[in-house]
């Protein structure tokens, strides 16, 4: 199968331009439909698969995004590496609206989502100590250089359930006590599921606001977020173009083992596995389930 670079576009990023042989394709998955059709094509010679996380027209809330279907569909299309381009609030004075942060860690505060492909009848435990693929992160950082935006190399992304923004007390706690740098609502469980599907994953956080902690910036305001996203549209498009030329695909074996995450992860004895669940795992875990 053709290997592809996957891009998951967040708020404000609903399509990518300049693809050769561009085609929106619907992929059937055992986890239901993905957020939208997936845009396939070639950019800078690289086969691509682009998925608007919330769907074109922003249909899905952070809670109702079908994360499992999205990752499964990307896997079925041959995606080996996914870069998420996401709108985020900032907990750091020096990470200002308009800046990009190349995230390297996550804290998961989501509560209402399916967080795993595995379960009763096929139990698996993958490592998530380093949820971001360091090689892909390096490529994303390089791709973001020269876009004319201020870049921050490394940062902890806190994923909240939403859809409401944080209270000021939460915002202060996340920043002062928990050490988070940016906040969003979507990259978990996406990163967990990508790891289970043995897909390298990295996030470029586009800072849109100072959340609710900053004494000089009042509380987070969606109108302002949309304004910043609009102002960043060219930089986001430039990022995707240079990511395509960054060499993630064709995919060499991942030095961090993201693409072998299931090697020793499945605990359930073959004779005790649920055939229905095993069948649903054909794309995600077919490599190890046979
Ligand atoms: C439009 S502000 C809140 C919304 O934006 C972010 O989405 P995404 O990560 O898909 O760019 C955030 O997580 C919320 O879903
Ligand atoms: N302050 C914020 N909190 C959560 N998600 C966001 N997305 C953009 N800004 C955000």
From TrEMBL:
Its EC number is 2.4.2.28. Phosphate binds at residues 11, 53-54, 86-87, 186. SUPFAM superfamilies: Purine and uridine phosphorylases. It is an enzyme of class 2 (transferase). Keywords: Glycosyltransferase, Purine salvage, Transferase. Homohexamer. Dimer of a homotrimer. This is S-methyl-5'-thioadenosine phosphorylase. It comes from Palleronia sediminis.
